[in-house]
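Long-time lurker, first post. I've been practising inverse folding by hand and with some scripts of my own, and I keep getting stuck on stretches where the structure tokens seem ambiguous. Below is the full token string for one chain I'm working on. Before anyone asks, I'm not after the true native sequence, just a reasonable design that respects the backbone. If someone could post their per-position residues I'd love to compare against what I wrote down in my notebook.
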């Protein structure tokens, strides 16, 4: 079976959904309603899909020094994936309600554990419904697998790395939040508004077409080369509010053939935990 590493279309998944090595993860979520995704999954999902919860499965415990969605313990995540039927030879497909923001978090975590056969369903649940594909509401117990993760070295940036990057010219910090939150306006989620001084804004929504899927490779590449300027992707640190939508930027970069950027997993919600860390607003850098 062909290996998918960034995107899979609805038609491609529909033609492979019954394959024994396909594992489908439903990642639907709403930050304002943490139980919404599980309820939507119970009401209807792609046949064979298993539900993963952003707070419980795709993040670790929040502490006084972390952001809102710290990385999960890799061994615990590997065990959980195995329970959900993901093995080391599985082609994993992740999806959410539409634009792939939450699905890309699952995609990144699997890549972080060294699993390359993972793709986001382009357009997600919305595209699956629009295409008139089969839906089921019963949850089927998956056949547990052994999943052995090998954490990718160099995939994660720390707050200290971001401090070094913002103070120099070698690396670029790219924030995936909307322009208003980046500028310190309309902040409704975190306790402080603004952005890391020196960071630039590339909202993850810039990766999307009007249907909610990812833009074509050439357009993505053009947009990202403009944002990167003279820097290579390996000189970029991706961040957002809590390390979720930044994964969408990493997905878009990889789909465009621009590899090597790191995730600041703690992101803005971790940065502001320390009052000594500087904050910029509006157009300041």
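-- Answer (accepted) --
I ran through it position by position. Result:
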């Amino acid at each position: 079976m062909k290996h998918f590493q960034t995107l899979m279309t609805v038609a491609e998944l529909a033609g492979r959904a019954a394959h024994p090595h396909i594992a489908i993860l439903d990642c639907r979520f709403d930050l304002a309603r943490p139980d919404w995704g599980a309820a939507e999954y119970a009401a209807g999902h792609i046949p064979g899909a298993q539900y993963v919860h952003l707070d419980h499965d795709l993040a670790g415990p929040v502490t006084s020094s972390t952001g809102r969605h710290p990385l999960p313990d890799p061994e615990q995540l590997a065990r959980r994936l195995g329970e959900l039927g993901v093995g080391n030879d599985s082609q994993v497909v992740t999806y959410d309600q539409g634009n792939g923001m939450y699905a890309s978090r699952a995609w990144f975590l699997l890549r972080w554990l060294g699993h390359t056969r993972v793709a986001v369903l382009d357009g997600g649940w919305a595209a699956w419904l629009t295409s008139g594909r089969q839906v089921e509401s019963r949850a089927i117990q998956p056949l547990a697998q052994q999943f052995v993760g090998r954490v990718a070295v160099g995939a994660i940036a720390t707050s200290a790395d971001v401090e070094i990057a913002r103070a120099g010219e070698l690396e670029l910090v790219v924030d995936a939040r909307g322009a208003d939150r980046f500028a310190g306006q309309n902040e409704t989620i975190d306790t402080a508004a603004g952005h890391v001084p020196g960071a630039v804004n590339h909202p993850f929504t810039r990766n999307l077409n009007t249907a909610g899927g990812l833009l074509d490779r050439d357009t993505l590449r053009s947009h990202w080369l403009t944002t990167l300027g003279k820097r290579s992707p390996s000189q970029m640190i991706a961040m957002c509010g809590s390390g979720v939508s930044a994964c969408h930027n990493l997905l878009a970069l990889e789909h465009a053939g621009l590899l090597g950027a790191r995730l600041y997993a703690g992101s803005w919600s971790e940065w502001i935990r320390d009052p000594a860390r500087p904050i910029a607003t509006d157009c300041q850098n």
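A couple of notes from the structure itself: The chain has a mean pLDDT of 95. DSSP finds ten helices and ten strands in the chain. Happy to go over any region you disagree with.
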